[in-house]
Amino acid sequence: MELEAIDDPDFRRLVDIAQHGPGSARRMISACVAALNGLISLITIAGVLAVLHPVLLPMLVLIAAPRGWGAMRVAQERYVSVMSWIEHVRASRLIGNLLTERTAAQEVRLHAVGAFLLSRYERMAESAEAEQERLASSKALTEWAASALSGLAMAATYGAMFWLITAGHMSLAVAGTAVIAVRTGSASLGGLVMNINQLHEESLYVRDHGRFLTQAGRRTLPVGGAPVPERVEEIVLDQVSYRYPDRDALALDGVSLTLPMGSVTAVVGENGSGKSTPMKILSGMLLPASGSLRWGEADLTGLDRAQVFARVGLLTQDFQRWPVTAAMNIRLGRPDHPATDDDLKPSVDYAVAGPVIAKLPDGLRSLLARMFRGAIELSGGEWQKVGLARTHWRSSTSEADGVLIVDEPTSALDPEAEIQAFDRIRRLAEHGTHDELIAARGRYAAMFGAQAAQYAPTATVPRPSAPTVSDQV
Ligand SMILES: Nc1ncnc2c1ncn2[C@@H]1O[C@H](COP(=O)(O)OP(=O)(O)O)[C@@H](O)[C@H]1O
Ligand SMILES: [Mg+2]
After folding, report:
1. Gap between the Cα atoms of 374 and 441, Å rounded
2. 221-258, pLDDT tens digit by residue?
3. Which atom of ligand 1 is nearest to the CA of 408?
C-alpha cells in the first residue's frame, strides 16, 4: 500500500471490515453444501406432496415463507449493527490493550490511568451490551412474528386437510402421509431458507472483502518504472502541496526546496509545522497532491519507487524497535543483503553500540523483544545506538548515491551523546572511493578542491566553487 492509505481512516476501517471476509467465504462453502442438500430433500418431498394433493405444495411454501423473511431480517439487522459498531469494538479493544501493554504500564500506575481507562472501558462495554440487547429484542420480535405467521399457515394447512378428508377428497391414510410430508417439508424448507440466508449474510462480508481488494488494488505501490539515474545532482520539491486524508488543512502548501546531493540541509521549525511531511515526500513515501518531486531530471511519478526507496536512509526518533535479535535489528536496515556477525561489526562499531551488545547475554544473538521469555529490553539511548547501527548498515550496503533523512533522532539522548550522535550521522552522509566522491561533486569534492587549491602553482587556477554544504541550522 501507499503510505497515504495507512493514514486514511476510511481505508483503515475497510481493512477492519475485510477481516471478516475470508472466514465468511469459508463458511459460505458449508452453507452452499447444506443448501444443496436441503434443496434435494425438498424436491423429493415436493414430489410426494404433489402426488398426494396439489394444494399441499403452495401451503408448504406459505408455512416456510414467514420464517425465511424473519431470518433475512435478523441477518440484515445484525450486519448493519456490526458495520456501525466496528469502530466502537476497535476502540474498546484498544483500551483493553492499553491496560496491559508494557509501554503504557508506568503511566497506567503512576498517573492512575488504569482506573480512568477501566471506567471508559466499562462505559463502552455497557453501550455495546445495550446494542446487543436491542438486537436481541428486535430479533425476538421478528422471530415471534415469523413463527406466528408460519403457525397460522400451518393451522390453515391442517384445516384444509381436514376439509379435504371430510369432503371425501382425501383418504385418511393419504392425509396421515401428508401430515408427515408437510412436517418434514416445512422443516427442510426452513433449513433451506436458513442456509440461503446465511449465504446472503456471509456474502455481505465477502462483498466488503472484495471492496477492500479493489481499493487496495488501486492504492498499491506501483511496481516497475524508469530506473533512478546512477548520479542524481539534486532533489527538487517544486511547489509541493500535501493534505493528510483526514485533515482539512494542508500540511504543506506550495513548498519548494532544492537539495543538492552531497550537501547537508537542516530543516528547522516548530512542532507540527511540516518538517517530517516533506521528508516523506522527497523519499517517495507520500505523493504530492499538487506540484512535483524530481530526482535529478526525472519526475518521481515515472520512477521505479522501489529504487527510490533503496536510495533513502531513514533515522527517526521513533524508529522501529523490531522484536527480533540485536543482529537482525541492525540487518533489517537492508534485509535482502546477506550478513554475518562480522559483516555487522563495522556498523556496531560506528554506532559505538559495542558495549551495549557486550552487555547482552548472547551478544548480537540476543532477542530484543520483551514480550517473549528470555528477551531483553534496552534503554532509550541504547536502542538509539542500535538504530544508528541499522542506518549505517543500510548506507554502507548501498551502491548508489542516496539521501539520509535524520528526523529528530536524538531527542532521547543527553546533550553529549547528542553531539556524538550527530557527529557520526554527519560522517554517514558521504562515502565512496576518492574518484566516486570527486565525481559526485559534493562536499568531499569541494573540500578536496579547496585543499588542492592551496598547492596550486599560480593564482590563475580557478578557485573551487563554494562548498555546497548548506548548514542552515
Ligand atoms: N499521519 C498523519 N495524519 C494526519 N495528519 C498528520 C499526519 N502526520 C502529520 N500530520 C499533520 O500534518 C502537519 C505537519 O506535520 P509534520 O510534517 O509531521 O510536522 P513536524 O515534523 O514539523 O512536527 C501537522 O499539523 C500534523 O498534525
Ligand atoms: Mg516531525
Report:
1. 50
2. 999 999 998 888 999 999 999 999 989 999 999 999 99
3. 21
Q: Whose CA is nearest to atom 27 of ligand 1?
A: 272
Which of 93-97, 163-167, 355-359, 442-446 is predicted least confidently? 442-446
Domain that residue 208 falls in: 3-219
> pLDDT at position 270, please?
84
| pLDDT tens sequence across 401-438 | 788 888 887 766 667 777 777 777 776 667 666 777 77
What is the total count of domains within the chain?
A: 3
Choose one of 4, 6, 237, 277 to mutate for the ligand 1 pocket test, by most ligand atoms within 8 angstroms of C-beta.
277
Beta strands of 187-321 (E only): which ranges? Answer: 234-242, 252-260, 290-295, 298-299, 312-316
- Angle of the 9-18 helix axis to the 20-52 helix axis, nearest 10: 50
Q: Report the CATH number at residue 42.
A: 1.20.1560.10
Based on the domain organization, do 320 and 381 belong to the same domain? yes
Nearest CA to ligand 1 atom 20: 272
> Look-up: residue for cell 527480533?
324
Q: What is the mean pLDDT of residues 434-454?
A: 72
First to last CA, the chain: 35
Return left, alpha or beta for 338; rule: phi > 0 is left, psi -120 to 50 is alpha, else beta.
Answer: beta
Q: Please give the pLDDT value at position 155.
A: 93
Helix (H, G, I), strand (E, B) or coil at 191: helix
| CA 408 to ligand 2 centroid distance, Å | 7
Q: Is 150 found in the same domain as 120? A: yes
What is the CB < 6 Å shell around ligand 1? 7, 244, 246-247, 251, 269, 271-277
| 179, 68: one domain | yes
Pick from 376, 390, 378, 385: nearest CA to 413: 385
Q: What is the pTM of this model?
A: 0.72
Residues 240 and 363 in one domain: no
If one counts every other C-beta atom within 10 angstroms of the C-beta of residue 472, the result is 9
Ligand nearest to the CA of 317: 2
The CATH number that applies at residue 334 is 3.40.50.300
